[in-house]
Design brief:
about 75% helix; globular; single chain; mainly alpha
Length: about 475
């Protein structure tokens, strides 16, 4: 039994089991592996959290390879909840200590459910949307009630760093092979526009999702520089350069914007320019690797991959130099043509649609599963025909999603939730007891506020997983787990 409490051993076993399930492709094998990992989490919560971090980072790829792995994360979190309730069975009251933002979240969920039922949304769609919002809150609920050691925090950072480096190297392969090698068959057959085709999608199946994850991994991996010296420290610097270069290869304007705002806020709050100087070298190396990978990709695709194809028959995507197309993504972000397209069927168009919905349902909106959230991708929406919105619409904007689905009341309640996040962030900043955690919380808060303009940020699994882990760690340091609100 003690052997099964060894985190590294369990992680190794988990990787082997998942690999076998992928090779077999058998759905029942995937379900069995999901059950085994859930049992591991039930036996030791720390191990369960490490498994969850690893699985969430790779989830889109894993479920593409074996659909039976789709419930792995849910089962692990359920096991963590069961273990937490069991371990606190003699102190039931501690299970009902909630912070202001938690109460706001519960009320927000209640409002969205009631509004959705009044609109006539399918119950399955409502459940899917609730899951998207609440699943990783349970990680906060569990982690806040755990005795967390510095050694465990270090394990989380180490696992994140290694995973991010592996995913970044895979991004190199994807870029150089033009999405033809080490990619699921369905992903190889994607039909993408020229500007999207040159972006690295990674194992997270999306450049925006990958860029957010890599930004998080880069930031928290800096924690390793405090603990390592000599060769290990240089390995970390090298890994950071690799992560940074793949971040650049995603060409994610939203992630760049969030990062730019965070750096500005960091300079104002922490005024620690000297400590950031070594990162300038990392940035230079990342930029060098970025251009090197682009050069190798262009050369390989021209000389080898598409060498036998006549020039006239090559697809426009293949004829466009990667670095030129990528540069144009930023250059043309606010061009007249881009704004015109956005106004006809892009982000601006859907902002106007959200305002239309809001005008018709200003108080409590139309409810969960009605306007471009996770649920509508699977079940569509009962209001789409009324507002001439297509089936595959995804809002990519947390603000308009909240406004349309929950109205004025939802916006006010969500503001309380955000204020709760801000309150903990400010308290942690004023404590000055853990600068690394303070910087991390500021990063997450800024990214949530800025990223919400271009992403459904509260539905982003990796972002919310790490944010709630950081929030729980701060809550424990501030003693909030013992307070009721």
């Amino acid at each position: 039994m003690n052997v099964l409490r060894n985190d590294r051993l369990i992680l190794t076993i988990a990787v082997l089991l998942v690999t076998l399930s992928i090779v077999s492709g058998n759905t029942y094998a995937g379900l069995a592996v999901s059950g085994i990992l859930a049992i591991f989490a039930l036996m030791k919560r720390e191990t369960g959290l490490l498994l969850l971090i690893l699985f969430t980072s790779l989830r889109p790829f894993l479920i593409e390879m074996n659909p039976g792995l789709k419930i792995t994360g849910d089962l692990i979190i359920f096991s963590l909840l069961i273990a937490t309730i069991f371990l606190n069975r003699k102190n039931i009251k501690s299970l009902f200590h909630f912070h202001m933002f938690e109460i706001a979240l519960f009320v927000f969920l209640g409002l969205g459910i009631v509004s959705a039922l009044l609109t006539g949304v399918d119950l399955k769609a409502i459940i899917v949307q609730i899951r998207a919002y609440v699943l990783f809150y349970f990680v906060y609920y569990v982690f806040k009630r755990m005795d967390v050691s510095k050694e465990f925090v270090l394990k989380v950072v180490q696992l994140t760093f290694v995973t991010a480096v592996i995913m970044s190297l895979h991004g190199y392969i994807e870029k150089i092979s033009d999405k033809t090698f080490l990619m699921p068959e369905a992903w190889k057959n994607w039909t993408l526009s020229a500007t999207n085709h040159i972006r690295v999608y990674g194992l997270l199946k999306g450049p925006n999702e990958l860029s957010l994850y890599l930004a998080i991994a880069f930031l928290i991996s800096l924690y390793l520089l405090v603990h390592y010296t000599g060769v290990k420290k240089w390995i970390v610097y090298s890994g950071l350069a690799v992560i940074g270069s793949t971040f650049l290869l995603t060409y994610s304007r939203g992630a760049f914007l969030a990062l730019f705002v965070f750096i500005a806020v960091y300079m104002i709050l922490f005024r620690s320019i000297k400590k950031t100087l070594p990162l300038l070298l990392v940035f230079i190396c990342s930029a060098g690797l970025f251009f090197a990978v682009n050069f190798v990709a262009d050369t390989y695709q021209e000389k080898v991959l598409y060498a036998e194809e006549p020039t006239d028959d090559i697809d426009d995507v293949e004829k466009t130099p990667s670095k030129e197309t990528g540069y144009n993504r930023y250059k043309n972000a606010f061009s007249e043509d881009t704004l015109e397209k956005s106004g006809s069927d892009g982000r601006i168009y859907y902002v106007t649609k959200a305002i239309e919905v809001f005008k018709d349902h200003p108080i409590i909106g139309t409810g969960f599963g009605t306007f471009g959230g996770a649920a509508t991708l699977a079940y569509s929406s009962p209001i789409y025909d009324d507002y001439d919105i297509g089936f595959n619409f995804y809002s990519d904007n947390q603000y308009i999603l909240t406004l349309a689905e929950t109205g004025i009341l939802g916006v006010l309640i969500l503001t309380l939730l955000v204020f709760g996040f801000l309150k903990i962030t400010i308290k942690m900043f004023r404590e000055k007891s853990d600068t690394s955690l303070s910087i991390t919380l500021v990063f997450f808060f800024v990214t949530m506020m800025v990223g919400g303009l271009v992403y459904n940020i509260l539905e982003n699994d990796t972002f919310m997983l790490y944010y709630f882990l950081a929030m729980a760690l701060a809550a424990r340091k501030l003693g909030l787990e013992k307070k009721e609100f």
